[in-house]
Amino acid sequence: MTERYDVLVVGAGPAGLAAAGTAAAHGARVGLLDAQPRAGGQVWRHDVRKPAPRAAREAIAALHGVNLLAQHSVIASEDGALRVETPEGSALLTYGALVLATGARELLLPFPGWTLPGVSGAGGLQALTKQGWPVAGKRVVIAGSGPLLLAAAATLRAHGAKVVGIHEQASPDSVHAFARQLLHWPARAAQALSLRARLMGVPYRFGSIVRHAHGEDAVRVVEIEDAHGTACVDCDLLAVGYGLVPNVELAQLLGCALDHAPTHPHVQVDELLRTSVPAVFAAGEACGIGGLAAARIEGAIAGHMASGHADEARVLLPERDRARRFGALLARHFAPGSRVHALATPQTLICRCEDVTLGALDGYADARDAKLATRCGMGACQGRICGTALAELGRFPRGAGRPPLFPARLATLAGLATSPSDDASRSTT
Amino acid sequence: MSATVRLQVNGQPVEVPAGASVAAAVAHWTLHFRTSVSGETRAPLCGMGVCFECRVRIDGVAHQRACITPARDGMQVDSHD
Ligand SMILES: Cc1cc2nc3c(=O)[nH]c(=O)nc-3n(C[C@H](O)[C@H](O)[C@H](O)COP(=O)(O)OP(=O)(O)OC[C@H]3O[C@@H](n4cnc5c(N)ncnc54)[C@H](O)[C@@H]3O)c2cc1C
Ligand code: FES
Question: What is the CATH number of domain A108-242?
Answer without folding.
Answer: 3.50.50.60
